[in-house]
Amino acid sequence: MKNNKIDLILKRVIDISVSLIVLIALLPIWLLIGILIKVTSEGPVFFLQERPGQHKKIFKVFKFRTMKPGSEKMVKGQEVMKDDARVTSIGKFLRRSKLDEIPQVLNVLRGEMSLVGPRPERIASLEDYTPEISKRLNVKPGVTGLAQVSGNIYLSLEERYKLDVYYAENFSLGLDIKIFIRTVGVVLFGEEKYTNKSLVREQG
Question: What average pLDDT score do residues 67-95 get?
Answer without folding.
Answer: 71
